[in-house]
């Protein structure tokens, strides 16, 4: 997910606000990064695909929790909180436009993942824990061990969107076997973790019902989450040891985003934060692009502005790395890892902190009265 850098920054902002562990200037750096990411969303909301918007919704959930728990210890802290509140308001206003564009551009795919289209879905875990190095696999398979079509299908079965008015929280044997397989690498791990996280956030209980393997009889959903994140931690440590590259930066950021959201606080490392902040293009607002690609994007946009009637079909728009912004193939959710893209639409406006009244601020942090993801819990049906 190309939007993952913003979510990492938001998660670290939350961690710093709750624990008081960060210097004021570090929080200023994070807020500046988030502001640039929000400006990118404002300019490109029509072109960001579904997984990119979901990434920004994760950011919104983290940011609202940070605002809610922000300490009011001194004027500097209060000013930073005011800036964060203004950022929340900006994101709220932009999400409506981005979601409307998604619904129009790809209504079928939007309907399948509509429950994810609310920040209220991405609840913040109440407690923090750490990974365990002893859970790292002795070896992993050399290729990814998930099927994109099956992965999408398994998620729609959990969400209840596999058909109109479908029953949610359905766990089939192929889904359970795939999502509990050990020894998987890289993006397979993040898919497996997201499956359990989305099931829990959807209100599904006992996702492991029907698993009769004796070796797994004491396993819980949280056990799997800890195993997956322990291996994702090892992946990130190896990446840092060998040096971040254009090929590894995406999985590095994604691991921090997802495991951080799952409550594993040892992914919140100050040096990792600095790595992420350095990856952001300060003018465009996206993460992980080299300067030559940025220059090419700027040139392409200037050409498009000079030829306003020359339109490219949305499904044919290709990111510099060769990935679709709104590709039509299945398996796109959490698959098109460049989902946010890295495009430029002019200068980034400065964020002017605005004093927000208490009543208005409370409304910003209050969930919508009828959010799309506000669905009653269900048990699990095993097929």
What's the arrangement of secondary structure elements?
Layout: H1 4-19, H2 24-44, H3 50-68, H4 75-105, H5 107-112, H6 148-159, E1 170-171, H7 173-179, H8 186-202, H9 221-242, H10 249-261, H11 270-279, H12 291-306, H13 358-365, E2 381-382
Parallel strand pairs: 1-2
Helix pairs in contact: 1-2, 1-3, 1-10, 1-11, 2-4, 3-4, 6-8, 8-9, 8-10, 9-10
Keywords: Signal
Protein name: Chromosome 16 open reading frame 89
Signal peptide: 1-24
Question: Kindly, what is the distance between the CA atoms of the first and last residues, rounded to a whole number of angstroms?
Answer: 32 Å
Q: Give the neighbour order of strands across the main sheet.
A: 1-2
Decide which structural class fits the backbone. mainly alpha
Helix and strand pattern:
HHHHHHEHHHHHHHE
**Helical element count?**
13
Strand content: under 5%
Choose one word for the global shape.
globular
Helix content: 40-55%
Give unreliable regions as ranges.
1-11, 308-341, 343-357, 369-382
Number of domains: 1
The pLDDT mean sits at 76
The overall strand count is: 2
- How is the main sheet built? 2 strands, parallel
Question: Radius of gyration over alpha carbons?
Answer: 20 Å
